[in-house]
Amino acid sequence: MSRRRHSDGDDGGQSHKRRRTSEPIEIEDRLESLICRVGEKSTSSLESNLEGLAGVLEADLPNYKNKILRILCAVARLLPEKLTVYTTLVGLLNARNYNFGGEFVEAMIRQLKETLKANLYTEALYLVRFLCDLVNCHVIAAPSMVAMFENFVSVTQEEDVPQVRSDWFVYVVLSSLPWVGKELYEKKDVEMDRLLNQIDGYLKRRLKTHVSMLQVWTAEKPHPQEEYLDCLWAQIQKLKKDRWQERHILRPYIAFDSVLCEALQHNLPPFTPPAHMPDCQYPVPRVIFRMFDYTDAPEGPVMPGSHSVERFVIEDNLHNIIKSHWKERKTCAAQLLSYPGKNKIPLNYHIVEVIFGELFQLPCPPHIDVMYTTLLIELCKLQPGSLPQVLAQATEMMYMRLDTMNTTCIDRLLNWFSHHLSNFQFRWSWDDWTDCLALDADKPKPKFVKEVLEKCMRLSYHQRIVDIVPPTFTALIPADPIFFYKYQDEANSALPGYAVAITVGNAIKNRASNEEILTVLKDVPNPNQEDDDDEGEGFNPLKIEVFLQTLLHLAAKSFSHSFSALAKFHEILKVLTDCDEGKLHILRVVYEVWRNHPQMISVLVDKLIRTQIVDCAAVANWLFSPSMAHEFTRFYVWEILHSTIRKMNKHVQKIQKELEEAKDKLERQQHKKKDSGDEEDMEKNSEDEDGQLEEQIERLQEKVESAQSEQKNLFLVIFQRFIMMLTEHLVRCETGSVDFSTPWYKNCIERLQQIFLMHHVTIQQYMGTLENLLFTAELDHHILAVYQQFCALQL
Amino acid sequence: MSIKLNALFSDSYVDVSQYRDQHFKGNRYEQEKLLKQANTLYVGNLSFYTTEEQVYELFSKSGDVKRIIIGLDKVKKTACGFCFVEYYTRTDAENAMRFVNGTRLDDRIIRTDWDAGFKEGRQYGRGKSGGQVRDEYRQDYDPARGGYGKLAQLQRPPEGRNSF
């Protein structure tokens, strides 16, 4: 019986086919909907909804058991924020139908194995937690759960495995204890104590080289940025001291205790953690982001302490809500604000802390940056009387702590803040920040304000920025984004090339052809040549300058004008920049003319790379060159560099994909040959086709290798430059007996870290080369430490 | 293992809207197909003064922008309050639909919608006076969009005639 769905493209005339097959589908959809929606806002109590649903599902078991099993397994895996609602439901079903309970547990174990094999560690975590809570619902016997925990913790005894592997198994056990610690201790306290001792020993001996690379703030005050396992351990210790009394988690099964305790329990089958394989990708370590404590929320409910298990559960749930609903900002905001138990906690503070925690997470936020901006705006809309104040308080706090904030996080903060302001008419109490005016311009606070204002200008216009800040802030206002034309007026007529510049300008305006323009340019003397022994075909910086300055001047009106100009005269630009020095010089000219308009520089560099007038390595060399040293700490320089690296990465991926597709095509063709009959004609044609494809594959293979070589070279150039600059600085400071830890140094070393963190996936491939060529033991230990911390992340 | 729980994980901001381009060369089915694969967005309710640079900055937040085409008044050839933003990938365009649509640019809530793809001629307003159709008939005063709607401008008594 066909189960094809009624497709959108149909004209609706096929409804007679639908009638026979739709009923089971409709019922399955309804079941899915009922199960997914239980626990949401309702006129009835949660208990009566669960009771009702259990009845419905029990009745549907004979016909829809497999579907129900699959849906329940899916919600266990995907909706951890509603864990206890669903464990209660399963508990009720188990009480009514023991066999179903057993089949569910089996299905869960199967799913657990599959998720582990598929590197879906977060989902596996939720599955284990679900199984734990099923102990509370009398579905699973406590001793068998303890046995599973013992197998997990025994992973810490394994040798030659990545630390992140044993980390994960320990994390699974510890993070389940808020739910099930009490029950397990009541039944098996000796075994549990032994487990916790083993964990304690492991935590004491594990390495924490990675921590400083992941901390948002380097300062211990006011809130230490703790390693995630250390923080969780402290929370569990406290919970144990409180005799496992946990009051925050919503436990619907308590109301059903009389029913559930009558149920027969199942034993978990013995579960051996799958062995470590080279392609296993365990979750990366984290640092717990904390920015608030109970002193920050002066009125209303008290914020649970940093080592309370309540804090862990709240944060975990809020993260999960964002994970479930990040694509739907209205739903996400609503779900966050309707967190169960919100009246007992300063929910707005928790939400803001969790959101910034994600935004600042190193190496990368879990979701795209702009999502957090829009989510916060949505939250402000829903809570206009309270959330904006918390957000302002948070912003103020983060401004105060800029001195110790990681540079990458400062980038994200200023991107968020400027974008946020642009949605609220740029209203801000700038006067509160006049303290930054007294500081040197290279210190974090004035730098931050300057970069924020520059970003605000990009979203509006120069005069707007002048209008929104107090007059005292004039020094921090971004420059007016004007073009600097060297050959502007007759005052410059003495400059070499001036006359040609005028001629070229007129030629362009009169739509001269590329040949005509090249002829005009022949008249430009080459300052690099001594005699005229050449035809002048080599690198001529003046020629580049005269042509490009004039062209960009004529096209300065908008991005589109400039892009058209680059496209129209692509040929000429290619000729002029045929060598590395030419490529470098073109970038220098772009900077010279547009140095007041960093955004324009960014988009022009992007176009020059995409049209292959310059290559990525040239851009890297240019940014690290002495001529750009004074701009080295400006935000836009790093925007350009990271954008360049990303373009390189995407280029390699694109060709790799083409290669894969060509290989797949060949494979399919060869299969078809085997399957079809043996006709001479067909064989001849397909041989030709195969031959063509094989040639194509060979060409693509070469292309991939060449692209990867270019990519590796790009990273080598970048790292080499960093090492040179940092070493020079460190040596200079040492010989001068000066403290090396200047704002410039902090910026530079953190930018080096940023390269590793933002592009870790790609860099992994080249670790061998990096270690052999660059990050050797001879390196200054400050620089080497960055590399070692990166390796410790086992990304 | 994987069932997707359609009931729960919707992605409505990415859905195709009810609007269909009346000048589209092809049938409804073809237009919908293109909309569902599109990397291009139509952006509406812009101020006439909003620049390409501003649009670039905002829309770059969801990914690399391939090109922007500012909508022009057919007669005056000046910006008339809309544009097209084309991305290199569909994913980046989707994120713009999820996180840029409905937020502010130049203090105005802008609206984005899927577009079947830019074709020469589509950068012009289709209103009788040269701007967008919506500016022909609206009755409110919007200083960032030329003041009153075109029809309303014709209906209003001209200013300053009674001075002498």
TrEMBL record, chain A:
Pfam families: MIF4G, MIF4G_like, MIF4G_like_2. Signal peptide: none annotated. GO terms for cellular component: cytoplasm; nuclear cap binding complex; nucleus. InterPro entries: ARM-type_fold (IPR016024), CBP80 (IPR027159), MIF4G-like_typ-1 (IPR015172), MIF4G-like_typ-2 (IPR015174), MIF4G-like_typ-3 (IPR003890). It is found in: Cytoplasm; Nucleus. Residues 677-694 have a biased composition (Acidic residues). GO terms for biological process: 7-methylguanosine mRNA capping; mRNA export from nucleus; nuclear-transcribed mRNA catabolic process, nonsense-mediated decay; regulation of mRNA processing; regulation of translation; regulatory ncRNA-mediated gene silencing; RNA splicing. Keywords: Coiled coil, Cytoplasm, mRNA capping, mRNA processing, mRNA splicing, mRNA transport, Nonsense-mediated mRNA decay, Nucleus, RNA-mediated gene silencing, Translation regulation, Transport. Residues 28-240 form the MIF4G domain. SMART domains: MIF4G. One of its GO terms (molecular function) is mRNA binding. Residues 1-24, 664-694 are annotated as: Disordered. Belongs to the NCBP1 family. This is Nuclear cap-binding protein subunit 1-like isoform X2. It comes from Salvelinus namaycush (Lake trout).
Automatic annotation (TrEMBL), chain B:
SMART domains: RRM. Component of the nuclear cap-binding complex (CBC), a heterodimer composed of ncbp1/cbp80 and ncbp2/cbp20 that interacts with m7GpppG-capped RNA. GO terms for molecular function: RNA cap binding. Component of the cap-binding complex (CBC), which binds co-transcriptionally to the 5' cap of pre-mRNAs and is involved in various processes such as pre-mRNA splicing, translation regulation, nonsense-mediated mRNA decay, RNA-mediated gene silencing (RNAi) by microRNAs (miRNAs) and mRNA export. The CBC complex is involved in mRNA export from the nucleus, leading to the recruitment of the mRNA export machinery to the 5' end of mRNA and to mRNA export in a 5' to 3' direction through the nuclear pore. GO terms for biological process: mRNA cis splicing, via spliceosome; mRNA transport; nuclear-transcribed mRNA catabolic process, nonsense-mediated decay; regulation of translation; regulatory ncRNA-mediated gene silencing. Belongs to the RRM NCBP2 family. The keyword RNA-binding applies. It is found in: Nucleus. GO terms for cellular component: nuclear cap binding complex; nucleus. SUPFAM superfamilies: RNA-binding domain, RBD. Signal peptide: none annotated. This is Nuclear cap-binding protein subunit 2. Its main location: nucleus. Keywords: mRNA processing, mRNA splicing, mRNA transport, Nonsense-mediated mRNA decay, Nucleus, RNA-binding, RNA-mediated gene silencing, Translation regulation, Transport. PROSITE patterns: RRM. InterPro entries: NCBP2, NCBP2_RRM, Nucleotide-bd_a/b_plait_sf, RBD_domain_sf, RRM_dom. Residues 39-117 form the RRM domain.
